[in-house]
Amino acid sequence: MGRRIVMLGAPGAGKGTQAVRIAGRLAAPHISTGDIFRAHLKNGTAIGRQVQPYLDAGQLVPDELTCAIVADRLQADDCRGGYVLDGFPRSVPQAEMLTKLLRDHGDDLDMAIDIAVPDEEIVGRLAARRFCPKCGKIFNLKFSPSGNGKKCDAPGCDGTLERRSDDEEETIRERLRVYHETTEPIIGYYESQGILRTVPAAKASADDVFAKVEELLRTAGAA
Ligand code: AP5
Ligand code: MG
């Protein structure tokens, strides 16, 4: 099978954590729209200024801008052999745009992996999330702390860990509300296409979740 994979799941479900591992396994790029927006914010670009109010409020960036950025990214050479999309699509119009973009090139998505975690578990997880602004590695104070205290423990990296500005409880709750209202319907969209695979991930460690994901990839002949 091809290797065009979409990660679905609520904020904090572990999409990024799993996407990095899948991308490593498949030697395919990990494309996170959230990471792309945060890079624009950090670099003070015009797009960064445009998206900041949405990220701060836990709201979705308008489909038109998001879709244009993704369409552009998917044209890059490194996407030819497949990719792991994380955080896109996030609305039915975005999912329809992706289907159309792929079909225009005679392609299809291969798998949509839904990491299913209940809301109660998510709030505690996100309050304890930290990330390295230098290399992007994701940590959790409770579940996967850095082996280097407040610094990143990735080889050759010594970034000082930070908390994401949208990981305040009020913003987390708004992100969850937006998820259930606007993003969750795309689970049905991919189910009807026959490519949805659900990974129950409540109270499961990141390693246990990845073991289930690997099984899916093997079964599909992707890895
Ligand atoms: P984005 O960056 O995509 O955020 P999100 O969907 O809210 O998801 P997160 O990144 O918070 O969580 P995750 O599922 O990746 O979990 P993680 O692996 O980090 O988007 C941010 C914003 O950008 C949006 O709010 C929106 O404004 C905008 N945006 C992005 N894409 C958009 C789009 N397509 N359209 C419009 N707007 C868009 O894990 C979370 C924590 O849990 C970590 O600390 C991790 O270490 C820990 N963890 C992971 N797995 C486990 C486990 N199994 N057990 C215990 N802890 C775990
Ligand atoms: Mg993420």
Q: How would you briefly describe this protein structure?
A:
It contains 9 helices and 7 strands, in the order βαβαααβαβαββααβα. It is α/β, with parallel strands linked by helices and 223 residues long.
Break the fold down into its secondary structure elements and pairings:
Elements: E1 4-8, H1 15-26, E2 30-32, H2 33-43, H3 46-57, H4 63-74, E3 83-86, H5 92-104, E4 111-116, H6 119-127, E5 129-131, E6 138-140, H7 169-183, H8 185-192, E7 196-200, H9 206-219
Parallel strand pairs: 1-3, 1-4, 2-3, 4-7
Antiparallel strand pairs: 5-6
Helix pairs in contact: 1-9, 2-3, 4-5, 6-7
Bound molecules: BIS(adenosine)-5'-pentaphosphate (AP5) and magnesium ion (MG).
The site of magnesium ion has 4 residues, from α1.
What would you note in describing this structure?
- 48% of the residues lie in helices and 13% in strands.
- It starts with a strand and ends with a helix.
- α2 crosses α3, α4 runs parallel beside α5 and α6 crosses α7.
- It is of the alpha/beta class.
- It has 9 helices and 7 strands.
- β5 and β6 form a beta hairpin.
- The protein has a 5-stranded parallel β-sheet, with helices on both faces.
Provide tags for this entry.
223 residues, alpha/beta, Rossmann fold, 5-stranded parallel β-sheet, two-stranded antiparallel ribbon, 9 helices, 7 strands, globular, binds BIS(adenosine)-5'-pentaphosphate, binds magnesium ion
